[in-house]
Amino acid sequence: MISKKIGQVFFICLALLSCAGRPAAADDVSVTAEVDRRSLELGSFCQLKITVQGAQKVEPVVLPKIEGMESRYLGPSTSITLINGQYSASRSFQYNLYPLSEGRYTIPAMNVAVNGKTYSTEPIYLEVTASPAAGQNRLNGPKDSLQDKIFLTLSVPQREYYVNERVPVTMKLYIQNLSVRNVHYPEMDHVGFALKSSQDIQQSTEILGGLKYDVITFYAQVYPTRPGALTLGPAEIVCDILFKNPAARSPFSRVDGFLNDSFFRGLFEDYDQQTISVKSADLRIPVLPLPEEGRPKDFSGAVGPYDFDATVTPTELKVGDPLTVRMTVTGPGNPDAVQMPALGGEGAFKFYEPQSTENANSKSIEQVAVPTSENIKAFPAVSFSYFDTGSRQYKTVTRGPFPLTISKLKEGEQLKIVGLGAVPGQYSIEPETLGQDILFIKDRPGPFYPRDRLFLFQRPGFWVLAVVLVLTWSGLYGYYHFHRKLATDTRFARRFHAPRVARAGLKEAQGFMAQGDSRQFYDMLFKTVQNYFSNTFHIPGGAVSMDVVLNVLKEKKAAETVLEQVRAFYAECESVRYALVQPRREQMAGSFARVTEMIESIEKNGK
Amino acid sequence: MKQFVAVIIITGVILFRPAAAAERPKEDAWATFIKAGFAYQEGRYDEAIVQYEHLLQQGRVSGALYYNLANAYFKKGQLGKAILNYERARELLPRDSDVLSNYKLTLSQKEQNFPLPRKSMIQKTAEGALNYYTVNELVVLTVVLMTMAGGLFLAALFFTWPRQKISFVITACLTLSVLCAAGVIVKMHVRAGEGFAVSSTEARFEPRHDATVHFTVKEGQKVKALKREGPWLKIERPDQKTGWVEAGTVELL
Questions:
Q1: A459 CA to chain B: closest CA distance, Å?
Q2: Is the pTM of this model over 0.80?
Q3: Positions in chain B whose pLDDT score sits under 50
Q4: I want to staple A235 with a disulfide (CB 3.0 to 4.6 A). Which of A89, A280, B186, B188 is the partner?
């Protein structure tokens, strides 16, 4: 009783749905034939399904005799789908095919009569291989490779294109009996092409060689940028595929009974995910150069079927009022390569900076122009030249000239009372519109510079000055340090002054020599030499003796001649100062010369 | 002493004379400049350009000359060359309001087909400071500040000035002089290879006419020349895209 009621409700719903929805048109009928696999082993079978889409009242299809293959009709099935208020019905007929020997088989195209019309299926090719070895599962048949189950194709509609012509590219990802996730947008090599990717994606199913595939279609547009045989692709897509992990076991696998039922096994089956990359073949596309012959001078670079429109508004205005010129170029070519037409009327109109907008298939420009005279009768015509790929010729579209009615400004019209008009006796001046142009040239050239020595450091004088400055600074700094050392370093100061003091003493001795006063001469000579040694070698005055001096000189590795001179000097002084012998003038001169030579040689050797 | 001073003065005059320009009669240059100015005033921009370019070919440059030439190119609608010459004028007259005004107006009329990279506040400040001075001004400042620092150092030594007080001034002078020297180096580095597209062109991946077009260089676009290969020039756009263009389409500063 309950089942009868449920059946009634079901049929009512079906009837309502039938009324609500619109049936598919008769032209929507299609007939397809598909197999569940194309490769099978001897002893196994494959399933053939003939589907009539868009019709229900169809007689079962009688399979033609296929040599070397037995067929068994399994029965029909009907399905109804309702999408967006439209329903469609399909009727399928299923058959099992049993090969009797190895080889390649062809299921021929079959004719199916639907509503008085005959529809044909595509032929299907099957390959039957030898039976598997004993122990192998006979029902599974040979496994298809992953490349057969998922692959990517790349196609363009035409054989050849022109430079900058739009090339619509279709990339189709075919998937058969695979769970695919996270399909990325395909990447495509496009050397020699400018790429405009489109995010349009379509999903559908396709029968290819008798197999049914789920198809994801991606669209893109490329524009060849140079002539020659260019290569497009390969395209590559990255996605994840899910596959059953045969090694993984259900957590309930140890529990016998109902948990081991196929329903529960399916519920707890473990799936692995693997990221794969699917690559298409590449395409060789011949790209033709644009012909030189007949190319207009104002060729815009647009290639393809184009349309051009231009408007000028307003057409009635006063001198100084702005008008707007709008130009729109519509077409499929590379928008970056399209140059908008140049506006004429320079001098008669003052033009402002254009505003440009770009859409997928159109490029527009708006430019404000101000007429400079009331004598202007029209805005000049604008022309757009493009290369029409259909007729393979250059074409020019001209719009205009655009008639204008320009009136003169009335006297005092620039002054308009705005804002405070409601208050009598008060008015304001309309905000001034400032013109825009460059400032005038300069009437004096200013200082001229040599172009090759524009910068100071390119001139030798700069470096001379720099060296002079550095040397001056270094000299002054050195001078400061020298004087500081003289003031603070007694040893250095005595050594520094020793020759000068010695020279003064020798001069005084020379005076005594001139007077013939040998005692005073030798006293002074001795004193001078003693002081010299004391200052030079930093020895206290009272401690200077021949032995001390000779030791110091030996330590400083003075020459033997110097040592001899020192010994001779001291001996001479001893003999003269303490003996009663009065030396002659010549002897004094000789002593003076020896002492001078001795001091000079010590100074010369830096000892 | 008088002879020494005389020798110094004569040497200075010889060394610092404007070499090439001084060899040619100054009056000629003035006359050409004025003549070009008249041509400009009467709207004969082509003639003005020829006269100004003639002066440049003679090896003379001046800020006003570049400015006037840029004006003439602007009037002829050659924005690329106008921007190039305004930029050159800015190097010599960095604080001239006329140059800045015309330069900005010309830039506003230039087509820009890619977003310019954003600059940080520090970059903007540094750029502003560098653009305020010419290279020569920065060089002079560097020398003067270093001389001041050196002079103060020596004065402090000789006159035994308090070192703590004077060291602050010396450090400030040295820091400023280092900054000025760095400014010179940066300006010269930035200037090296900098140029402008004098006409719109296409930059390609390779220095060949049939190579793939990479991007479009609009007229007046600032670019940096990286390499020359025969008649081709490898350039870098401010957004760091590089490509090969025909050398004639880009003029270097």
A1: 7
A2: no
A3: 19-24
A4: A280
